[in-house]
């Protein structure tokens, strides 16, 4: 399994309920290694606000979700998607009504 990440346009998520087209300001956003076998590290810096990390399939199935109510501004964790089938997945980092979106391709 290999993962590839790509930026998505804001308007690709404008129809998602609860998230408007405002882009979340995230510093030092890294996901590595890339490509990989389904496990990757996600690291970023953002405002100290409740934060949600969500990964969904193109069919809308949520395959990973993490809510951090007491987010301290820094995130660094290994995420394991090795049990998912090959395809395109959508990574979102959400704070309030702002989000940053990336595309993940599992090969």
Summarize this structure briefly.
This protein has 107 residues and is mainly beta. It is 0% helix and 53% strand. β2 and β3 (39-45) form a beta hairpin.
Structural summary, described in words:
Strand 2 (27-32) and strand 3 (39-45) form a beta hairpin. The chain has no helices and 8 strands. The termini are close together. The chain is mostly beta strands and 107 residues long. The model is unreliable at 10-15 (pLDDT under 50).
Number of DSSP helical runs? 0
| SSE pattern, N- to C-terminal | EEEEEEEE
Indicate the low-confidence ranges by residue numbers.
10-15
Q: Which shape, going by the Cα principal axes?
A: globular
Oligomer: single chain
Tell me the strand order in the biggest sheet. 1-8-7-4-5
Strand content: over 45%
The major β-sheet equals:
5 strands, antiparallel
Structural class category: mainly beta
Question: What number is the mean pLDDT?
Answer: 82
Radius of gyration: 13 Å
Helical fraction: under 10%
Give the end-to-end Cα distance, rounded to a whole number of Å.
Answer: 5 Å
Q: How many strand segments?
A: 8
